[in-house]
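Work Package 3 (structural annotation) set out to generate three-dimensional models for the target panel prioritized at the project kickoff. During this period the team completed the workflow that converts sequence records into discrete structure tokens, so that structures can be stored uniformly alongside our sequence database. As a representative example, we reproduce one entry of 397 residues exactly as it appears in the project archive.
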Amino acid sequence: MEEDDKQILIAGGGIGGLAAALACSRAGWPVQLVERAQSFDEVGAGIQMGPNVVRLLQGWGLEQSLKQVAAFPDVLRVRSATSSAALGCLRLGERTRALYGAPYTTIHRADLHRMLLCALVQQGSTALHAGQRLVSFVDTGSVVHLHTDAGLQLEGGALVGADGLWSSVRQQLLLQDSAPRVTGHLAYRALVRQADLPAALRSQEITVWLGARLHVVQYPVRGGDYLNVVAIVEGAVVGGGNVQDWDHATHARDLQAAMGSTCPALQDLVAAIQTWRLWALCDRPPMAGAHEQAQGRVALLGDAAHPMRPYMAQGAGMAIEDAACLQAVLSGPQQSMAERLQRYAQQRWQRNARVQARSVRNGQIFHATGLVRWGRDLSMRVLGERILDAPWLYRGG
């Protein structure tokens, strides 16, 4: 079989896996994708996408689809969770379009997933296999053999592990690898119809509330009809629980207790929402080299390669950037697959590591106490947009 005739195997049918499949397909490579779940659905709530990501989706012909399901806030405001005082503001909207060539977008995770899935089906060169969990693979040097728990056997020119934080592909590729680390941060997520909220709590902006050892982010999704709220506090899941099971049922009173002495406006928002989901946040240290992103004919993408804390809102974004880079190397000059994947890893690992490291740093700043908190607030009031903007990120890799 000639190199260019071989199909690409992908493990994982989340946002990263679908983006990878779409990218490979657009590069002219047929794809076989295996997903452990019984159907191609996405759970969770909203995500933010900077112009670095939106620009890539537009390049895949998804601009109109995005406009139908996303929200496009004009401003990001930072407030004190204790006093509700304004700390800083970042203009989005036309400013972001003018500077970076694309808008800043907020979207429900399931809507993004569905959008990618529809585009992939329309592309027509991907076979989707649900209910198939990868259990092993063998990279022979000339081909990759994949086996699933349901007995499916596939052969391809490369394997892309896009199977998330607890990646089976990663476990077999990086033999000396350790388990993801538990950060000690808990994320409460809620999604509520804006019409069901008191008028004073509705918003079409992104608002970030910064407190001591906690912060809350709220923003519109689904064309602004829904409000996504994420509260992150420091602590452990009550009663323990399996950190691999990210989606824990919880009660509003648990979060209300965690809010402590935050301002009335924030407490009113939390009290107005009755249904929350909770999970313990995990990540990995910043990537240390290209070997953590690809070896031989096997590559990692998204959370399988570089899980990160959500304090730069770039988890899904870096997975989509990975996919776009994969498309570029697969569309490039004739090379062996191992050489193509090595180029992919070399182009991606340092940027991913930088975002991982900055995400950890941002979390420390968001949750600061004492003099550090005082200095943060003062700097934000004085410098505002200069601190909140991230040209190095939004201009792309």
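The first strand starts at residue 8 and ends at 11.
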